[in-house]
Amino acid sequence: MMKWLLVLSALVAFAECFHKIPLIKGKTTREALQEKGIWEEFRKEHPYNPMAKFYQSGTESMTNDADLSYYGVISIGTPPQSFSVIFDTGSSNLWIPSVYCSSQACQNHRKFNPQQSSTFKWGSQPLSIQYGTGSMTGYLASDTVEVGGISVVNQVFGISHTEAAFMASMVADGILGLAFQSIASDNVVPVFDMMVKGGLVSKPLFSVYLSSNSAQGSEVVFGGIDSSHYTGQINWIPLSSDTYWQIKMDSVTINGQTVACAGGCQAIIDTGTSLIVGPSSDISNMNSWVGASTNQYGEAIVNCQNIQSMPEVTFTLNGNAFTIPASAYVSQSSYGCSTGFGQSGQQLWILGDVFIRQYYAIFDSSTPKIGLAKSV
User: Which of 143, 250, 260, 272 has the maximal Cβ count within 10 Å?
Assistant: First the structure.
C-alpha cells in the first residue's frame, strides 16, 4: 500500500509540472537616463504614449514605456542564443534584434545570428513594428524557442533590421507577446499557443507574479498556478474580448465615491505596461483625489511625506473589489514621488504592473478568463 501511495504522489507531482521563468527586476529606462542626467531631454523627445502598441492593425506592437522593469531570459536557435525579453500580455508577437541591424539601438542589445543556428528558417514576409515614436523593420523567420525549459520548435518570430532611436534606452533586447493570435502581426501563432497546441504544458494557462520591492521572486509560470504566490481565493473574471486579456471593469472608487469608470468600462490586464492607465479626465480626477499635481511631463507628483495619509483606490471587477494602497500606487525615487496613474486619449483602461504587483494574475486561454488573487 505504501509503495502505491509513493507512486501516486510521484504521478501527482509530475502532473503538476510547472515551467517557471524567473523575471529579473532590473533598472528601468527612466532610472538609467536619470543617472546620466538626460531624462528630461528624453521625455520631451519621446512623450509617454502607453496606448501606442494598441493602435496598430497588421503590424507588430512595441512599447515606449520607460518604467518597465521585469525581464526574463529565453533562448532561440541551435545551439541556443540567449535574449532578455519583456513578457507582454498586451501584445502577441515575439521579436528580437538581429546581426543585420545597424541602428544605434541594436548596438546596445544582444543580436540574433541566424547563420549560427542549424534549425533556423527564413520566412517570406517583411515585418513592420509601429509605436508612438517611430518604427522598426525586419523579417519573419522561424526557429526553436526555449522558454523556461519548454522547447517550441518552428516558432515564427520577428528579427529586426532597423530600430527607432529610443529603443537604444530599452533594457530588454526584445518582447515576447502573450496575448491572442487574433491581434498578432501577420497572424503568427503566439509562443504560448504553440505550447498549448504541442501539448507542452499540462494546463492551457500561465500565471504572473511580480514582486514589490526586492529584485527577487518575480516569475511567469507556464502551465500552472503557484499557490505560494497568493493568499485567499482566486476571483475568476470572464474575458469581454479575446484579443488582449480584456475584461469589464465596474468602477473605480476612493472612500466609497466613484471617481472614474462611472457606469463601467473596459480594461486590459497588461504585464507590458508599468502603470495603471486610463482616459485623461478620469485619471486627472483620481490624481486630484489623492492629492497629486501634474508637472510639465504629465507626471502626477506627490509629496513623499504624504504617502501614509493618502487614500486607497478600489477597482471593482466582476463585482469583486481590488484595492491598491498608496504605498503601492506611489513610486518613490531619489528624484521624488509620483503616482502610478497615467493618462491616455483612449477609453480603454490598462491595469499594468502597479496593479499586478498587488494581485497574482492567472491567464487561462481554455475558457478565456483571468484569475486574480491577493499577492503574497
Answer: 272
